[in-house]
Amino acid sequence: MNAFVAPIKKETLIIIGNGMVGHHCIEQLVEQGALAHYQVHVFGEERQRAYDRVHLSEYFGGRDAESLALCAADYYSEHGVQAHLHEAVLEIDRAQQEVVTANGRIAYDKLILATGSYPFVPPIPGAEGNSRLVYRTLDDLDAIRAAASGARRGVVVGGGLLGLEAANALTSLGLEAHVVEFAPRLMPVQLDDDGGAALKARIEALGVGVHLSRATSEIVAGDDYAYRMNFADGESLETDLIVFSAGIRPQDTLARSAGLAVAERGGVVIDDGFCTNDRAIFAIGECASWQGRVFGLVAPGYSMARNLAASLVGRPHEAFSGADMSTKLKLLGVDVGSIGDAHGATEGARSYRYIDDVTNSYRRLVVSADGKRVIGAVLVGDNSYYDTLLQYALNGIKLPADPASLILPVGEGVPTLGADALPDTATICSCHNVSKGAVCCQVDAGCTDLGELKANTKAATGCGGCAALLKQVFEHELSARGVEVDKSLCEHFAHTRQELYGIVRVESIESFEELLSKHGRGHHGCDICKPAVGSILASCWNQPITNPGLIPLQDTNDTFMANMQKNGTYSIVPRIAGGEITPEKLIVLGQVAKKYDLYTKITGGQRIDLFGAELHQLPDIWGELIEAGFETGHAYGKSLRTVKSCVGSTWCRYGVQDSVGMALTLEDRYKGLRSPHKIKFAVSGCTRECAEAQSKDVGVIATEKGWNLYVAGNGGMRPRHAELFATDLDDATLIKYIDRFLMFYVRTADRLQRTSVWRESLEGGLEYLQDVVINDSLGLGAELESQMQLVVDRYECEWANAISDPEKLKRFRTFVNDERNDPDIHFVRERGQRRPVKASELHLIPVAEEAAQ
Fold this sequence. Notes:
metal-binding, globular, nitrate assimilation, five-stranded parallel β-sheet, disordered C terminus, FAD/NAD(P)-binding domain, 853 residues, Enolase-like, domain 1, 38 strands, Nitrite reductase (NAD(P)H), iron-sulfur, 27 helices
């Protein structure tokens, strides 16, 4: 006789809030088997299911609500979770243990508050409508987008993290952006005075206005713009819209009305187990106050959600003990990092500072009074130091003999912190609380694929800031266990770029198809291997990129030998070697620009850029330029771009060598060289360095005795000073060393690896590179010079080659069977030239085009 087993009666668990923390709590409940014990309901005020607020600004860059969603549309129903979206909870009836919505009442056994926070808007007279926008939800962003239509200028009130994100959004909408901050520096919580000053300089260089120590007293109608912000100091600023990002406040209204204990500065009071003063109600995330603190980052909220889910199913878990509030950000394209006690407030704390006023880079290292531990850091301009400093701070790792070396520029004795130096308890991913030990466990369990590791642990799937460190630790642990780390270029080639380069050289392979058939797998290749192999073939044999066998390997820019711009048109950059140009050629550029109505700009590399050409116009424009003696400037390729120069001894009273002449020689020699990444040169006629040679891949500075050679510098996203490589060289020796340096880089660098990153990865550092190039320690000198000479001898202008071949010209068509212009490309006039229509100006298209006719 079978005994009757009554089904287990499930308790009802309600979660109020479907933001990132509320959703993560549901994921943890599902993962830990809680749905066998609880009937889970989740209520969210927004129409959309939970989405990624960390990357909210990407909504203006083309991502939609669906792509930002944190789960599939059927995730909740698949796991038996009842989702009540666009349904706000109006009241918590603690006496009846029910929540009240516009649709009725639902009883609960346990209740979790994950209501998050709301943007604080100061009570400023006149703040309403488009002068009282906020930046928090997708609906908020839709409102900002609507307000930006037809607007010219936008202001963000608040210079913190979210404020700068909002300023970035305004610039992406085509508005002139300004930031107004009450404090005397940007990001006052995370940065010190010097860090704030460096960030301000960088952001202003991007064209964003920064107004510090400003308190808005009222908002009134403007004269030239919709609104005028009057400040307490008597100054004012006019604008068309205002976005408030002056901080957040815990969303604790429901808790207050239900009589739950609320902290003095806001937030539902919780204990170490996230329980409120009602034992049936818990709170997590930004709405919760633990020991008087509210945590405004996603990682602490995730930690709360994990631990609470474990507690609800009776699994072991750690009591909440606070959270590390260190942050690594990219704001308006500027790296910003803050770790621990960034302000050095700890008693006896000592600081080391690195300040670079030229690049507006700043680094501060804060160490304990005994000089043995890192307790804080500030980074502005370069976050490559962040992971190492964070691990020193979190794990109490012993400092090097000279702690300042941890923040010195790369290449000046910086001690690196290898994966083996991290303890198993070291946190690799703070968003999902993944430790080094957890990575090791995955490797021990047989995980050998990085994608599988991310899927199993969710590491690097939150903010993504730990991706590089995760890969480093994972590969180190694989190697330590004798597992060969797969460094295949892609699924089609089980070789690195360096190995493929060697194969192409040794076997004299001259086509992708031959390389794929002999050393790859599959029939077509992919977007990774095609451009990489195309670059290798061009580097080795310098075939025209327009040849039929190479065209299918290229991205859009190389395919059409022009840089595609944001509106689908192309830019044209003829080579102006060394920045020297005759009046006749200058006139031709003006005539061509006027004839085709091209936007004209002088670049930072001493060339002239012509914007706005449609695809079918490119051959005609280049035909006129080539007839006038111009040739391609390779602005579209991973190749030599420019050789910048000052006027040198020819004109300058300080010049000691002919820098223009040397720049012309170098650009003429290396102008056809294809490489793993773009390369830039500069030649200065004296140590005053007007050509900024020490920020280039190859920098040459004149001395009384010849030339000093600098290598492996670059500007861009991660600036790096070039290193002094050799001194007082004559012309022939200088060129010989550059030949060897460049070809050794082309031979050994990884795909899309700048010379700066390549140099940092070389074992033995600068001394090793000098030994190879100067002392010929590998016996490659003559071979490298010969390979370079082959590239030089085979050079031809790719555009001259293309316009002389009718077959090659066939691909330069907007429409295959129609010669009309692309109807989706629109322009407006600004400062006497045409530019692309911004999203906010689409309503102006008919007027603009009528005016242009």
